[in-house]
Amino acid sequence: MNIVQRFVAPSEIDGTVEFFRRYWGAGHVLARDRSFLEWQLSPRRSPVFAEAGLAALGCWDGDRMVGMVGLQATDFNCDGDVAPGVWLTNLMSAPDYVDQGIGTKLMTGAHRLPFTCYGLIGINLAVIPMYRAMRYTCADATPRYVRLVDTDAASRLLSGDGVNERLATTTSVDRRVPPGVTVTEGEPPLDWDAFWTAYTRRGHYGIHRDASFLRWRYLEHPRFTYRLLFARDASGSLIGGAVFRLERIRDRDEQVLRLIEVTAGDDVAWNALLAAIEGLGADHGVAFIDHYTTCPDETVLRARGWYEELDRADVVTPCLFQPFVAQTRKMNYATRIVGASPWKDRPWRDSVHIVKSDGDQDRPN
């Protein structure tokens, strides 16, 4: 048996779609939507993949694909400094090749590429020991914050012994934006990158969310309609931004608002952006708003009526809607800096910024 490892070539994209179909089922989005696969693993995101058809490393036994890992090229930012990285997705092996250590082979190959930072989210629990052995910093869950909006609609979605109490204590949304602050919707403004750099210099480790990234990840998304909000103070200075999308639940009347990102310079910016988001949620009659983040402003969120999901074990707030599943699940994640990077000497683990759209988790089912 001679296992060969290489990038997925342009002529092998259809075979990769078939690989997903065979082992993850015909219903999986990557098994039925080639154009989405090409967007998610676009080789144009990094010159490393200049000759590839997909930003993915595959293993072949002869002409048979027996494993792959997606390598979503994404710059990382540590305290304002930028380095190349990848977000790992879709690590998988043909069942009859699992004993051949395909996953370890793929990860070893990925670590040999000229990237500094690696991250992944929504990890199969069975492979967590492998990532720990490879010196990844692993976390059991990305905190999820929830704001109930339409309590009638929410009552049809939530379950658990504490639902009635939670519904009874829900207050109406506060649409008031702090005095002098304006919130507008649109594309990333020209001063976003300067704001982002200043924001990250205060302590940040995670994806480099500059204007180029925001346009690619959200405005150029092939299936979802994301909306971007930006807040300015009375002087016109940019103080924050947010990304969200509305999601109608399959075969039901209810919808939810997924707050994907919040980048806010201070409590004023947080309050302004949340007031706008909550108001939009009320206007659309959503059951609730949710937000996965490792960098919340908990004081502002709780003052505005949000709760952290893990704080309420007696309330099940569903997170899967296509179709609706009356349960929740933890969104774990892992990160690693590879090689002789000076970033390793910084306390980067204290400022890891992860949201649900990192990697491939905010996508069609």
What's a quick, concise take on this entry?
By secondary structure, this protein is an alpha+beta fold. Helices cover 25% and strands 28% of the residues. It has eleven helices and 20 strands.
Overall description:
25% of the residues lie in helices and 28% in strands. The chain is α+β, with helices and mostly antiparallel strands and 365 residues long. It has a 7-stranded mixed sheet, sandwiched between helices. The chain has a 7-stranded mixed sheet with strand order 10-12-13-14-15-9-16, sandwiched between helices. α4 links the parallel β6 and β7 (117-121). The longest helix has 17 residues, at 267-283. It is globular and about 65 Å long.
Please describe the topology of this protein.
Elements: E1 3-7, H1 13-24, H2 29-32, H3 34-40, E2 56-61, E3 64-73, E4 76-78, E5 81-83, E6 85-93, H4 102-111, E7 117-121, H5 128-133, E8 137-139, E9 144-148, H6 151-155, H7 163-168, E10 182-185, H8 192-200, E11 205-207, H9 211-219, E12 227-232, E13 238-248, E14 255-264, H10 267-283, E15 288-292, H11 298-303, E16 307-308, E17 320-321, E18 324-325, E19 333-337, E20 352-353
User: β content, as a range?
Assistant: 25-35%
Strand order of the largest sheet: 1-2-3-6-7-19-8
The count of strands amounts to 20
- Average of per-residue pLDDT values: 96
Described by strand count, sense and barrel closure, the largest sheet is: 7 strands, mixed
Percent of residues in helices: 10-25%
